[in-house]
Write a structure and sequence with these properties.
There is one protein chain. This protein is an alpha/beta fold and about 240 residues long. It is about 25% helix and about 25% strand. It is built from 4 helices and 12 strands; from the N terminus they run ααββββββββαβββαβ. The strands form 3 sheets. An 8-stranded mixed sheet has the order 3-2-1-12-5-8-9-11, covered by helices on one side. A two-stranded parallel sheet has the order 4-10. Strands 6-7 form a two-stranded antiparallel ribbon. The termini are far apart.
């Protein structure tokens, strides 16, 4: 083969090779473009969407606010306010509640005090009365009044003193451990008061006319009586 023909063959082969190469590159380019377009439209590149809230199948809690009246909840006192309150003084009357139907009957002629429950005698004790007999009329007549009187106070009289004007001066323990005060205002109209049942410093006076109008008892008997009565217990005094 001549040299010129050989050169022509080489040139044609080279051109065919270049054509194939360009065709291959074109295919690769087309594939790359197609892949790029595909990946740009793929859902993996989209912004993530927040999941929809799950709908619970459990029923919603009932609204109980309308079921409770406003006054149902009692106001709570702050602890500090409660701590600032001064301690209450001990009551003058017995803490134990007297059973219903409890009353006292004093018979002057017998110098005796009876404790009753629904009219029945449950206990009795000897007593001393005012120095003078009869119904009390005025202050200082030293008589024990007749009538029905409620107990209005039970006082600690253990530290009280009294001058009986007998030259002995102030006597300690003259009223014993307690003074059971009687409300005699309905009888006296407010003109006199101070009548009560109390103990004594002079046990020998029990069973006699010895007081200034009150009812005296032995101190131990008074303590027993005190534990069985309270403010409001009715006391009847009769001849």
């Amino acid at each position: 083969m001549r040299q010129n023909d050989l050169r022509s063959v080489r040139i044609r082969r080279k051109r065919r090779s270049n054509t194939r190469l360009f065709a291959l590159l074109g295919c690769v380019l087309i594939l790359a473009l197609a892949y790029g377009a595909y990946t740009s439209l793929s859902p993996s590149n989209e912004e993530p969407t927040a999941p929809a809230p799950a709908i619970s199948s459990a029923p919603a809690p009932a609204d109980t606010s309308a079921q409770v009246p406003p006054a149902a909840a009692a106001p709570v006192e702050p602890a500090s306010a409660a701590e600032e309150k001064p301690p209450a003084e001990p009551p003058s009357q017995p803490a134990k509640k007297t059973p219903a139907g409890t009353s006292i009957l004093i018979k002057k002629s017998e110098f005796r005090l009876y404790l009753l429950a629904d009219g029945d005698v449950v206990n009795s004790w000897p007593i001393a009365l005012g120095k003078n007999e009869g119904q009390k009329r005025v202050s200082g007549d030293m008589k024990t009044p007749n009538g029905s009187f409620p107990i209005d106070e039970v006082l600690d009289s253990s530290y009280w003193t009294h001058d009986f004007h007998d030259g002995k001066g102030e006597i300690e323990g003259a009223y014993g451990p307690y003074f059971i005060s009687l409300d005699t205002s309905a009888l006296s109209g407010g003109a006199w008061d101070g009548i009560g049942i109390h103990g004594t410093h002079d046990p020998a006076s029990i069973g006699t006319h010895a007081s200034e109008g009150c009812i005296r008892m032995h101190n131990n008997d008074l303590l027993t009586l005190k534990n069985q009565i309270s403010v409001g217990t009715q006391v009847t005094i009769e001849e």
